[in-house]
Amino acid sequence: MNCHAIVIGGGPGGLLAAHTLASRNWQVTVLERATYPSAAVAGPQPRRGAPQSHCLHMLMGAGAEAFDAIVPDWRPSILRHGALPFDALQDAAMRLPGGWLPRSASGITMYACSRTLLENVLHEELLRYPRAQVVQASPVVGLDIRDNHVAGVHTASGTTLSAELVVDVSGTASRLPHWLADQTGQSDAEPWPETVVASPWNYASRWFRIAGGRQPDWQCLTVAPEGNGGCAAMMLRAEEDFWNVVLLGRKGQVMPQNDVEFRAFTAPLADGRLSAALEGARPVTPIHHYGRTTNRLRHVEDLLGWPSGLAALGDSVLTLDPYFGLGMTNAARGAVLLAEHLDAQGSGPFDGPAYQQDLARLNAAPWRLVTGRNTDGTPVHRKSAQLAQLYAAAPSSPDIARAILEVQHLLRSEDSLMKGVAA
Ligand SMILES: Cc1cc2nc3c(=O)[nH]c(=O)nc-3n(C[C@H](O)[C@H](O)[C@H](O)COP(=O)(O)OP(=O)(O)OC[C@H]3O[C@@H](n4cnc5c(N)ncnc54)[C@H](O)[C@@H]3O)c2cc1C
Q1: In the predicted model, is pLDDT for residue 347 greater than 90?
Q2: What is the pLDDT at residue 263?
Q3: What is the distance between the alpha carbons of residues 81 and 212, in angstroms, rounded to a whole number?
Q4: In a 3-state reduction of DSSP, which class is residue 6?
Q5: Using a 6 Å cutoff on CB, does residue 113 contact ligand 1?
Q6: Which pLDDT does position 230 carry in this prediction?
Q7: Cα(180) to centroid of ligand 1, in Å?
């Protein structure tokens, strides 16, 4: 086969989509507007183009399974680069409204590593395919569409690159709606249909380094907001003894601006465990704030005239409040679906509308879990009393704790959890 695909965006979603194509013998060009930090420098290095890379990125269970389907060697590769595997329950300190969860084996493996490390590994593994390349500092500025078929992209350097398939994975600020409108002469057209659910959170994150013997006895700590004055926190280990702490305050709440305020914010949280962990920690970056964490689902599938030869996935279609840490998982699941469509569709122009229809179905579950809303914005009818009962029981029941975790990792549905409780 001599087909060329262009992937717009070299974040986790773009690199996974590129793997999917390269492993099916496509020639693949990833166009990334920014440059990656050097893989030779130790420790997490946030990068331009992905401001969220200043913040810890947890890869949830369903995401790891999707990575397995796309990049078979990613687990040994990230371990070689310094990631540490850990059990999501046994090696984690998790505080739900009812108390701390039991430290028992869940069978869900997570990794202590930065987003940068994950990206570096996906990038490195991709370049093993002789027909794959990643072009950095190469922003895409438009699409070349002919007879309702995408024939390529225009880059900022004034070049037009041709391709049989273009995949937009350029993140939450994707310009795809504008590019499509420009092409069809509908610049003043209605905006894309979307459902938006505000996030209640402001985020502040900071990287620390903890000296050798002073590591906590967990790899990850999460504290739910209930019982904590509405504030929450997470802390995740990364490679090279770096740790990232992310603090969550309600919208309108002033988030910490300096070291003293950061430590004061952590003091009442986690029964002192977070403060204790930070006692021997040295801050190594400024504090980064994130306020634009709105949940947004673009109903791409409802657009009339979506061209063939075009697909969009990841944050470009569905952006989730990072509280649940499901963004990379969502992008990876979209890339697995892309693989299924490539295999099923065979030769001929890629049927973009069919892909987007199926992606919309796939996106519904993480959307419902994170927002508590259906995809049309109406509230999901949750059995709140049963759910509260379940959460209250979790600290004294490893089975319930594991079941709750499986829901959060998108490994089982919330409905199945509720049925389990009712039984
Ligand atoms: C504060 C915060 C914390 C988060 N924590 C987690 C977490 O714990 N776990 C998790 O799974 N997810 C987390 N996420 C979400 C996660 O970052 C994304 O969902 C995930 O990276 C998948 O996104 P993506 O690849 O679709 O887009 P991105 O990661 O945003 O990548 C898009 C890429 O496209 C490039 N690009 C943009 N425009 C162009 C253009 N015109 N031409 C070429 N390139 C372009 C950008 O430079 C970027 O590299 C978090 C997000 C935030 C904001």
Answers
A1: no
A2: 95
A3: 18
A4: strand
A5: no
A6: 82
A7: 21
- Which segments of 204-284 does DSSP mark as H helices, in order? 259-266, 273-279
pTM of the model: 0.96
**Would you state the pLDDT for residue 190?**
65
User: Do the bridges between strand 165-168 and strand 4-8 make them parallel or antiparallel, or are there none, so unpaired?
Assistant: parallel
Which of 286-290, 344-348, 394-398 shows the lowest mean pLDDT across its residues? 344-348
274/232 Cα distance (integer angstroms):
11
Query: Helix, strand or coil for residue 13?
Result: helix
Q: Is 57 in the pocket of ligand 1 (CB under 6 A)?
A: yes
Residue 130 to residue 25: CA distance in whole angstroms: 10
Domains and CATH numbers, the chain: 4-57+116-195+295-371 (3.50.50.60), 200-290 (3.30.70.2450), 384-422 (no CATH)
Q: Report the C-alpha gap between 159 and 152 in whole angstroms.
A: 10
If one residue of 32, 59, 67, 248 were mutated to test the ligand 1 pocket, choosing by the most ligand atoms within 8 A of its CB, it would be 32
CB–CB of 245/67 below 8 Å?
no
8-state DSSP, 48: T
CB of residue 315 inside a 6 A radius of ligand 1:
yes
For ligand 1, atom 16, the nearest C-alpha belongs to 327
Type of residue at 202 = N
Residue nearest to atom 1 of ligand 1 (CA): 52
Euclidean distance between CA atoms 9 and 7, whole angstroms: 6
pLDDT band at 418 (very low <50, low <70, confident <90, very high): confident
SS3 string of 74-94?
HHHHHHHCCCEEEECCCCEEE
Phi-psi region of 252 (alpha: psi -120 to 50; beta: other; left: phi over 0): left
Ligand 1 centroid – CA 171 distance (Å)? 5
In angstroms, the CA 63 to CA 410 distance is 8
pLDDT at 421 over 60: no
Find residue 313's DSSP bridge partners: none
174, 15 contact by CB (below 8 A): no
Alpha-carbon distance of 423 to 421, in angstroms, equals 5
Q: State yes or no: pLDDT of 161 exceeds 90.
A: yes
Q: What is the pLDDT of residues 283-337, one digit of tens each?
A: 999 999 998 889 999 999 988 789 999 999 999 999 999 999 999 999 999 999 9
Task: Tell me if 50 CB under 6 Å of ligand 1.
Answer: yes
